[in-house]
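Allow me, if you will, to draw on your knowledge of protein folds for a short while. I have a record of one protein: its chain in single-letter code and its fold written as discrete structure tokens. Could you please explain, in whatever detail you think fit, how the structure tokens follow from the sequence? The record follows directly beneath this note:
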Amino acid sequence: MINFLKIHWIAIVATISLVQPWIIALWKKFWRRGKLEIYESGNIEISYGPFGPVLSLYGTMRSLHRDIFVKSIDLQIIREKDKSQHTFQWLAFRPLLSELSSQQHISSEIPYSFLVSSTSPHRYNIVFADLDLYNEIKPQNDKYISEWFKLVERVKEKLPFTEGVNIPPEAIKEIENFRQSQIRIATYELLERKCYWEPGVYTLFFNVRTSKGNKTYTKKYCFTLNEEHCKNLKLNVITILEEPISNFLRRKNYPYYYAYAQYKDEPVENKS
């Protein structure tokens, strides 16, 4: 009887040894949860433009154990001074080697869902914008552009000429009058007021939303803006307003300013 049990026990152990690798393989393939890791690169690019406040982040995502399908990415920005919060939606995918401050034309793509393979990391370079604020400033921006084109058509009817070529003094005077107009002043005041970048510490939550169980992977960062950053970012309001005029005159417009802030793990105030 004892020998019989020993033989059966040996057979059971041998069977388990043979089956175990298959069980482990099946568990890894069908039941083990995937995990997404996010690795930032460079600095946080911060600006203010026609879309309002914008941030650009670039880095790498790595999926462990299984492929992960990313539905969308958004940011939550909290200004530590007063705890004001703003949500940034992804606005565009940029070429991996491009920078917002580049003077060359950048061909961007509309954001789309993508797969992060467990066998190949995914590099990202994404522009994010506060689309809620953009929807607030868009009507005034549209009105400003509309008034500008009305002026152009009116001047060209009275003084036929080609854009950017031998513009008569009378047309230049009309343009200068437009720069002093009420629509220009009102648009400037709105855009300047809506630029909420102020000196201080900000907390950033990088939220990657996936299709599997609607799971969200979040990476927390902090960054700091100083007074010079914020002063120069508000100067972008003039660049926004001058853009249609510079295009018409075929002259180089004022450059957009970008602040570059370092990633930090926690607010400066919390450090000992």
Summary: The first strand starts at residue 35 and ends at 49. The chain has two domains: 1-32, 34-136+184-270. Residues 22-27, 100-105, 268-272 have pLDDT under 50 and may be disordered.
